[in-house]
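tl;dr need the bound structure. longer version: we got a ligand (guanosine-5'-monophosphate) that a collaborator sent over and nobodys looked at where it sits. i said id run it. heres the input, straight from their email, havent touched it
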Amino acid sequence: MDENCIFCKIIAGKIPTLKVYEDKDVMAFLDIAPANKGHTLIVPKKHSKDMLEDNNKDLAAVMKAAKKISAAVMKAVSAEGFNFIANTGPVAGQVVFHTHFHIIPRFENDGLKHWPKKDYSEDEMIAVKNKIIESI
Ligand code: 5GP
Ligand code: ZN
């Protein structure tokens, strides 16, 4: 547990939350500032700052539970779809540095917008593709 981490405090029961799921490795609770009705956060219980630092075993447990919880969230609020998102790093909008994934139920005409598209040249795309492959 990280003493300064708000999600660690939630997991430890030191801060109240609207919990929807818990097992030995994973917890899920409603987001306090939801983008839509049913917006849920799913987290590994063990502290890590983001998914790149989380260990594979915990990450796998989160993903397995996320499938079950996403289906339950959809059913509970009669959603027609959902976004499954990890904001990773401050530049991507991460504000809580404990690995978490957002399950955001989506409805027809709910007003949420996707990010705009940005083009880059095919040459640059190929160069980026090659760099990614080299980096794996
Ligand atoms: P991110 O770091 O991915 O940008 O988002 C963190 C999310 O955690 C936000 O959507 C925010 O509303 C949620 N959040 C922050 N503090 C709390 C809290 O104390 N309780 C709950 N349930 N959600 C929180
Ligand atoms: Zn934490």
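gonna send this back to them w/ a short note. Residues 2, 5, 7-8, 47, 98 surround zinc ion (ligand 2) (CB under 6 Å).
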